[in-house]
Design goal:
Blueprint: E1 3-7, E2 17-20, H1 24-39, H2 45-53, H3 58-73, H4 82-93, H5 98-108, H6 116-129, H7 136-146, H8 149-155, H9 163-198, H10 206-226, H11 231-236, H12 239-253
Antiparallel strand pairs: 1-2
Length: about 250
Amino acid sequence: MEEIMKMKGEEKVNQDVTITWNDLELYLEWERKVEHMFDGHNYSEEKKVKLVIIEFIDYASIWWDQFVINKCRNGERPIHTWEDIKPVMRRRFVPSHYHRDLHGKFQSLTQGSMSVEDYYKEMEIAMIRANVEEDREATMARFIGGLKKEIAYVVELQYYMEIEDLLHKATQVERQLKSKSSSKFASSSSSSWKSNWKNSKAVTNPEEDVISIIQTLILKVKLTLIHPIDHMISSALGVKELDILLLNVQIKEQ
């Protein structure tokens, strides 16, 4: 794969940065670093152009020389600023479908196997790269829509004003769900080991059944106080729904 560009010398963006022919992301990263370098120094436009052009090697150097020659032949205005160079380079090194692909990725992004934090970062990066500007309510709705269902269900019952609040609550729900899942797994493994060790069937404990019924009743009363809902609907809630609502109650109490 051909090497296009290398930043070297005393004033350079990054040590030994090379950009290859079809490494689009690396090219865009290089462009951002050039922007940051220029933002941090009071260079004249003439010096900015020289700092960029003098670093072109191999294909990039030949391509640029031919580009300048063609402009002279056609009687076009020469390049004088970094802002003039950027669109020229983007036309050459950034495919026309790049932004369409970015928007497509942004629109279809979901949490999947990612953590809540990683999902949020991916969404934020996709928005920046696709240059998306939308209302904060739309962004929060998009974020919730891409969360795993068990997390989104609880988060939607929470109070939040900003995307950062929403992120923190979603992360908290994720941790509690993982903790609960780990506890159930440990309990299940322990019960299985005891069952195999005793080599006998589990015997129902009437006292434990009574305690379980009482806990369920307390939960329903608690939920009714915090989330007033119809008594018939509350009575019809299954174990999974009660678990999710209980998690919501625990979060509100913290």
